[in-house]
Fold this protein.
Amino acid sequence: QVQLVESGGGLVQPGGSLRLSCAASGRVFSTVPMAWYRQAPGKGRELVASVTTDGHPNYAEFARGRFIISRDNSENSVNLQLQMNRLKPDDTAVYYCNADGTGRLLYGLDDWGKGTLVTVSS
């Protein structure tokens, strides 16, 4: 049984910061790279950042230099974080966590959490 619960979203002014958290329950998550995704209104879901099992990050171009992804592993779960700085209105979206694309395909991780809404507006 796997579960993904995102939290930490909210309303923030341009230039502000937010820290998102994801509780990923299920042993499989501790064995695969994890990622944050986002879906803006009227657009498809896109990758924001990913992190390997030993903590090496990769970022989408729009996130590089502003966002920091990190993870804390335990035997049966992962606590995934996304520190978002210098936020822009274009960052407004629902943010989701899950395994990276390869992990999702390999283990059939097709279910998503409810996400957490980030709104960047003055």
